[in-house]
């Protein structure tokens, strides 16, 4: 028998999320008992009080993580044992899918349908995949002379600090939690103050799955307090950070001011979506450009915010693109059919509206959107917005907006397309649309981006690395390459004496 569809509004009314820290396996208040109120961008409702973690709370969490690492309660468990715990963790995430999806929607505003169909399954898949991968890795024996045996092994780095953003709170956390735990590290996670609840719940589910206390700790709070304290901590061995390029620079500064901890930054993007006149399916290209841009309210670092179109097809393509926007009209995130939800908070709402105003003042042509939506909802919403006639030097073509704003730029030949695409400080993703394999391959090679899509955009799998060139960061999340961030490479030389004993 099919279950009736959940009444998400009724469930939301009954929700009482716990905002306390998770340190050493227990829910605890901040050391000074100070909290902050967390409201929902959906309708402004108060979700609850959240512990305002600061340096003493980070100290407590790092101490718990260090103690757990040094006594080897997790790191010394055989790979097969760690695998079973992480598999149970993934199963518990799936079992709690409706609770986690509702928390995610209320916390940061995404549609409940997306939270259920994308965020929760992707989080569980990530944890399960690293669980399966951890006992498939082999170390190396170097090809030395017969008088020596040189072993090359990877060992856990120790205590990992993870700082994650508010746009995909669960997924971004899982990309760091799963490989770090799989390799035997201990962890302190600092979620964004704008979206703390799913991270805290994930820590509880990990404990229920059998992860030893102290191995996975979560301290919510503000970046300038808890985040800075974690990044400066002398007993943290590595930082995995996802967020703005501005804050990423601070992470590197904090490492230099403290213990030279390893810092792996996954930062912003200004991705180019390049359409050549030999693209055989302009309608599909336009639908893909719109869908990849306006999904998650445009709050995606890899969103194709710059559409580069050949002048010969620009008018037709822009017409097709504009026709997609009604499908992305903002709606109630707690209604299953909603495609675009709320901007995370009023600060981000004002930022997005400020960029729209900037585009108009600099001379770009506003084709659609551009205004605040659903003003009577109590939440924060922006219409899907499309600009044409954009010059590569405009702010909306250079700076990451992190909202539903897409800019169309025109080019006349392949060389100009590559030049415009590469003419930003970012290098996260790009896309090339052409039916000529040689052109697609040639342009893809010329683009300075960590991922280049050909005749599609935003295809995704945990097996594929994610990260960027230039100021989009360093290191890679996802895939086996993520293990490199959370391990130390050790060489062990053994001398082999040729004489008989």
Tally of individual helices = 15
Q: Helicity, in percent?
A: 25-40%
Regions with pLDDT < 50 over 5+ consecutive residues? none
Shape annotation: globular
| β-sheet strand percentage | 15-25%
How many E strands?
A: 23
Strand order, largest beta sheet: 14-17-18-13-12-20-21
Structural class: alpha/beta
C-alpha Rg (nearest Å) = 24 Å
Mean pLDDT rating: 97
What is the end-to-end distance? 74 Å
Major β-sheet annotation: 7 strands, mixed
Task: Give a topology summary.
Elements: H1 8-14, E1 21-23, E2 26-28, E3 35-39, E4 46-51, H2 55-70, H3 79-95, H4 97-108, H5 112-133, E5 140-141, E6 148-156, E7 159-163, H6 169-182, E8 186-190, H7 197-208, E9 216-218, H8 223-232, E10 238-242, H9 245-257, E11 262-266, E12 272-275, H10 282-294, E13 306-310, H11 314-322, H12 346-361, E14 365-368, E15 372-373, E16 381-382, E17 385-388, H13 395-398, E18 405-411, H14 414-422, E19 426-427, E20 429-433, H15 437-446, E21 451-454, E22 469-470, E23 487-495
Parallel strand pairs: 7-8, 7-10, 8-9, 10-11, 12-13, 12-20, 13-18, 17-18, 20-21
Antiparallel strand pairs: 1-2, 3-4, 5-6, 6-23, 14-17, 15-16, 19-22
Helix pairs in contact: 2-8, 3-5, 3-7, 4-5, 5-6, 10-11
Report what the structure shows.
The chain starts with 7 loop residues before the first helix and ends in a 6-residue tail after the last strand. Helices cover 37% and strands 20% of the residues. A seven-stranded mixed β-sheet has the order 14-17-18-13-12-20-21, with helices on both faces. The chain has a five-stranded parallel β-sheet with strand order 9-8-7-10-11, sandwiched between helices. The protein has 15 helices and 23 strands. The radius of gyration is 24 Å and the shape is globular. It has 501 residues and is an alpha/beta fold.
